[in-house]
Design a protein that fits this description.
The chain is an alpha/beta fold and 375 residues long. Strands 4-3-5-12-6 form a five-stranded mixed beta sheet. The protein is built from 13 helices and twelve strands. Helix 9 crosses helix 13 (364-370) and helix 10 crosses helix 11 (306-321). A hairpin with a 5-residue loop joins strand 1 and strand 2 (33-35).
Length: 375
C-alpha cells in the first residue's frame, strides 16, 4: 500500500469517528427528513391536593382527573390526600399540601384568624346541608325547633346549623353568653347513628352522605322530614379549592419554571374536566371511587352497601356541582353575589366580625384555567 493511500484511509477513519452515531430518519409527507428519535417528556411537577374528608364520591371529579390522566396531560403529578374529620386548612398553611378543598365558612374563619389562605375556585355552587327529623315529630320548619335537641358537628362544621337558627332568631347552648337557650345542641362526630333519633329531635345531615346513612338505619325518606338549608335562604357555599398567598404568588413553583397561578390553573383545568366527566357518567365515577374508599363509603345500618351509598352520593353531588354558574358555562366560578351572601350569613351569627380582605378571593387561577373573564 502506498504512503499516500494509507494517509487517505486514515483521514477517512478520523472523519467517521468524529461524526458520532447517526440518527435514523424517515420521510414526512412533504418529503423532508424527520427524526424518529422519541422525544423525552418533561418531568411532571409534583402537586399535593388536600381533600376535606375521606375518599368518596364527594371528590369524584379529582379521582377521575387522576385516573384519566388529565393531571398528567397538564404536566402535573397530583397526589390526593385524605384528611378525615380534621380541617385541611392547617395542612395547607403548614406546607403539608399545596392546595386543598374545604367549605367557605372554614376558609373565611381561617382568614379572619390571620391565616393567609386564598379562595381560587368554587366547585359546588349549592349547599347540601339538611336538618332531618322523624315525620312523627311533625317538625316541618325551624320555627318548631324551640325546646328541641339538635345534633350538630364539631370543628366549624356547625356553622350552617347556627346560620339557620339565627335566621329564625333562635339561640342555642353553643353560645356561652346565653343562659336560657331555645335549642340544646348536641355535638357528635358525624355518624348520625350515634345520636339519631334517641338523643336528638333534629340531626344535621348532608344530602349526599348522612341523609342516606339515616335511610340505612331503617328510616326511609317517607318517614322523615327533611329541611333544606338553601330553601330557607341559607346557602353557605361548601366545597371549594384554595391555596396560600405564598403558593399563589410563587414566581417559580417548586423550581418548575411555572408560577403558582400557572400551576393552579393546570390543576383546576384538569379537575374541571374530571368533574364534568364524573357528572356525565356517574356509574363510572362510582366504580372509580369504590376501590379507594374506606369504611366511610358504605353508609350506615344493616343494609349498608358501599356501591349503593356511593351511587346515592354521586347523584346528590352532581346536583351541587350543576347549579348556579356551572349551568351558565362557568364551572368553578365564585359568584360574587353568592359569596357576599355567605359572608353576611357568617357575620349574622357572629362567626365573622368584619368583611374579609379583598385578597381572600383571587380569580386569577380560574381565569387562566378557563380563558374567561370574571365579572
Amino acid at each position: 500500500m502506498s504512503q499516500s493511500l494509507l494517509l487517505a484511509l486514515c483521514s477517512l477513519l478520523v472523519v467517521i469517528a468524529c461524526s458520532g452515531p447517526q440518527t435514523a430518519t424517515a420521510p414526512n409527507p412533504e418529503g423532508a427528513a424527520t427524526s424518529t428519535t422519541a422525544a423525552i417528556p418533561a418531568a411532571l411537577v409534583p402537586v399535593r391536593l388536600q381533600l376535606k374528608w375521606f375518599p368518596q364520591a364527594q371528590f369524584a371529579g379529582y379521582f377521575i382527573a387522576k385516573q384519566k390522566g388529565y393531571f398528567q396531560d397538564e404536566g402535573l403529578d397530583v397526589e390526593l390526600l385524605p384528611i378525615g374529620d380534621q380541617s385541611p386548612i392547617q395542612t395547607v398553611v403548614s406546607g403539608g399540601s399545596d392546595f386543598g378543598t374545604t367549605w367557605i365558612s372554614d376558609l373565611l374563619v381561617a382568614r379572619q384568624q390571620g391565616l393567609p389562605v386564598v379562595h381560587i375556585a368554587q366547585m359546588f355552587q349549592k349547599s347540601g346541608f339538611r336538618l332531618v327529623s322523624l315525620k312523627e315529630k311533625n317538625i316541618t320548619s325551624p320555627e318548631q325547633f324551640k325546646g328541641k335537641k339538635i345534633g350538630v358537628w364539631p370543628s366549624g362544621n356547625e356553622y350552617p346549623a347556627l346560620a339557620v337558627l339565627k335566621k329564625y332568631n333562635l339561640t342555642s347552648s353553643l353560645d356561652s353568653k346565653v343562659t336560657n337557650p331555645d335549642i340544646q345542641a348536641v355535638t357528635y362526630p358525624f355518624d348520625p347513628g350515634l345520636v339519631f333519633p334517641k338523643q336528638v329531635d333534629v340531626v344535621s345531615a348532608m344530602s349526599y352522605n348522612e341523609l342516606n346513612q339515616i335511610v340505612g338505619l331503617g328510616y326511609s325518606l317517607d318517614k322523615l322530614n327533611v329541611i333544606s338549608a338553601p330553601d330557607l335562604g341559607v346557602n353557605l357555599l361548601e366545597d371549594l379549592v384554595f391555596t396560600t398567598e405564598e403558593t399563589l404568588n410563587a414566581a417559580n413553583f417548586k423550581d418548575s419554571g411555572l408560577s403558582g397561578v400557572e400551576i393552579g390553573a393546570k390543576l383546576l383545568r384538569a379537575s374541571l374536566k374530571g368533574w364534568d366527566d364524573a357528572v356525565k357518567d356517574q356509574a363510572t365515577a362510582v366504580t372509580t371511587v369504590l376501590p379507594i374508599c374506606g369504611n366511610t363509603c358504605k353508609g350506615s345500618g344493616a343494609t349498608a352497601d358501599p356501591k349503593d351509598h356511593q351511587t346515592w352520593q354521586m347523584a346528590e353531588i352532581a346536583k351541587l356541582y350543576q347549579a348556579g354558574p356551572t349551568l351558565e358555562g362557568k364551572a368553578g366560578y365564585l359568584d360574587p353575589v353568592a359569596y357576599k351572601a355567605s359572608v353576611e350569613l357568617l357575620k349574622g351569627v357572629g362567626i365573622l366580625t368584619a368583611d374579609p380582605a379583598e385578597t381572600t378571593v383571587s380569580y386569577k387561577v380560574w381565569e387562566a384555567a378557563t380563558g374567561k373573564t370574571a365579572s
